């Protein structure tokens, strides 16, 4: 993540040097690193062999890095002015969640982070840092500057890497050649972001021979503490929510965020009803009618009638029987029975449902769940295409090409009702948009999700490295890019040039720390990420 312009002047003061083969370690109470010398000759040979192409390639990186440095510097000073209320408009840097820097999906509520999740973050970070440092090394080799060493370091608790060059040789280079070296890391991180983005877009096509994509959301894990674990298990697929077909986890999350936003704004509709036969209502009145506390026995839920002025049923609302409706039109019903009935009301999002409460027959009445404010009622339909019963069914029907689609061979299709916060429902599961065409190994379910996480994490980490190294901050690439770029401002003499660089770096370092602190504060104390 940085370049060190090294001099051959021995071991730094206060460090213990340990040498083994062609590796060197420096240790102290606040800093340790591991230096590699074995790649020097290989990288130098590669850079010299393709020097002409690499110089042209790195020139694009100079343009990108200088623009990034200028843009981010302007943003930092603009945000500082907004923080001191010098103006009102802001870029909204404080709204950037920390999860953007690693790109992994949020942890499932009740599920601890797995070894695989941790390995994905570590692997993606190592790859992104390697791409960054190789960019510097190859750029230097193409300019004829040999590499001193490549090092991995840990400063306090912050890991990083660097490539060291001989300072005398760097100073002898033309300014633009030096810029090509300093900007190479940012440039290669940006290119790597593009590669990861294209790989993510092409992943469904790449995995098409082995996986079905975008048909339904498949369950990879359910929190043991969630009530969903009584119905869903690993390998099940979610067919629909409230009658709307769910094709991917992203689609499910979008629906839940939309519903949650409407509830918070007070614009959400809770007019989801069922056409309940009068006979069932009569039975519920004598067995489990709600008392003044609106409680229901176990296995039952509270329902209240939706008014229909055109209905002539026994439970019709009228001005003369308003008191009777208020008391007697609340019933305790079994959700397992109710969800099998015809739907009515205006709260259903799926197509093909009856929207009008008056659409029920004369012997039925439209009843909706009676819920506490802030909670919602959701019907979740699911299937179990990878269950043993499904495998047996397919074996009996002599299906050679296994396709988990439930189509004409339904396997464990069912429906359950979830009452509560929809976002909690979403975060209680880990889902995937991919379904294996052949289910020989259980781990095959996780392969597409793992690849997606690696590519997404590498994308975000690489983008973060490019952005951080574009900051005008001491010890990062931005410092060297700024110092070299100032040489092109010809009306500045060397003294003013050094002063401008020093002032900009001091201000940039302070403002970067403030901006990062604001991001951390608004992330953890404004609810962007849970503190767990």
Automatic annotation (TrEMBL):
Cell compartment(s), UniProt: Endomembrane system
Pfam family of the protein (one): Peptidase_M50
Transmembrane segments: 57-78, 98-126, 147-166, 186-207, 503-524
Keyword terms: Membrane, Transmembrane, Transmembrane helix
One Gene Ontology cellular component annotation held by this UniProt entry: endomembrane system
Keyword Membrane: yes
InterPro entries the UniProt entry points to: MBTPS2, PDZ_sf, Peptidase_M50
Chief location bin: membrane
Membrane topology, as annotated: Multi-pass membrane protein
Residues covered by the Peptidase M50 domain: 124-250
Domain of life: Eukaryota
Matching PANTHER family: MEMBRANE-BOUND TRANSCRIPTION FACTOR SITE-2 PROTEASE, PROTEASE M50 MEMBRANE-BOUND TRANSCRIPTION FACTOR SITE 2 PROTEASE
Family, similarity comment: Belongs to the peptidase M50A family.
Full protein name: Endopeptidase S2P
Organism: Dendrobium thyrsiflorum (Pinecone-like raceme dendrobium)
